[in-house]
Amino acid sequence: MHKRYQNARFVTSAASVASLPPETGAEVAFAGRSNAGKSSALNRICHQKALARTSKTPGRTQQINFFDVGEGRHLVDLPGYGYARVEKSRQRQWGAFLQHYLLERGALRGLILLMDIRHPLTPLDEQLLNLCREAGVPVHVLLTKSDKLKRGQATTARREVKKRLEAEGLHAEVQLFSALNGEGLEAVQARLDDWLGFGPPAGADAAAETSGPEAG
Ligand SMILES: Nc1nc2c(ncn2[C@@H]2O[C@H](COP(=O)(O)OP(=O)(O)OP(=O)(O)O)[C@@H](O)[C@H]2O)c(=O)[nH]1
């Protein structure tokens, strides 16, 4: 089992450009619509119950949260977007902050975009993908809650998302993920290792290393 992320710990939050922490090393950001399953995914990836608070009320995560995963590397939890009840002015403010973060953050190695497998590629997801392309930030897509669909449906959903992205000239990798049953966990951890510049985990065998991010 991959244990590196078990020691992740919360370091700080930022609610504005001015309060962003100094760039100490590589970081990978997690983004997605409210309720896409981001907190659940982070908790699962880090084998912790409440690292990122899982909430049944969508839209409650309002700050960028930084988690230290060792050796100066960080996972960064971006606030969920698209929650209808957040006022327009706050949505705009958040958009500007996100744009600044994606364009200016030198330490940012890539973005994990989480989308509920049953509702992928909403207009806000598309906007974020375009922003990442503009900023030159690589994207890795998790189609979350894959346990909600039958095997064949999940595979088809993945293929269709991949096809739509390619049609738009976006070359993101797309994988299935379930925080519930752990599907795709090793693939996303391998992607994080790669982006963060970690070597293979101690005790990893060749099979684990070759299970590419598109597995699942
Ligand atoms: N079946 C299933 N449900 C999931 C999975 N991941 C998350 N959920 C459920 O989906 C809901 C939202 O999950 P969260 O992890 O809180 O979502 P979030 O994206 O962090 O939401 P915000 O805090 O609004 O940004 C919760 O009711 C979770 O229990 C999954 O893999 N499978």
From TrEMBL:
- Superkingdom, taxonomy of origin: Bacteria
Q: Which InterPro entries match?
A: G_ENGB_dom, GTP-bd, GTP-bd_ribosome_bio_YsxC, P-loop_NTPase
One GO molecular function term of this record is: metal ion binding
Tell me the SUPFAM superfamilies matching this sequence.
P-loop containing nucleoside triphosphate hydrolases (SSF52540)
Q: What cofactors does this protein use?
A: Mg(2+)
Which Pfam family, just one, is annotated for this protein?
A: MMR_HSR1
Q: Which GO terms describe its cellular component?
A: cytosol
* Gene Ontology annotations of biological process type: division septum assembly
Q: Does the keyword Zinc apply?
A: no
Entry keywords, A to Z: Cell cycle, Cell division, GTP-binding, Magnesium, Metal-binding, Nucleotide-binding, Septation
Entry annotated with the keyword Magnesium: yes
- Domain EngB-type G, first and last residues per copy: 24-198
The protein's job, in short, is: Necessary for normal cell division and for the maintenance of normal septation.
Q: Which family does it belong to?
A: Belongs to the TRAFAC class TrmE-Era-EngA-EngB-Septin-like GTPase superfamily. EngB GTPase family.
Name of protein: Probable GTP-binding protein EngB
| Source taxonomy | Bacteria, Pseudomonadati, Pseudomonadota, Gammaproteobacteria, Chromatiales
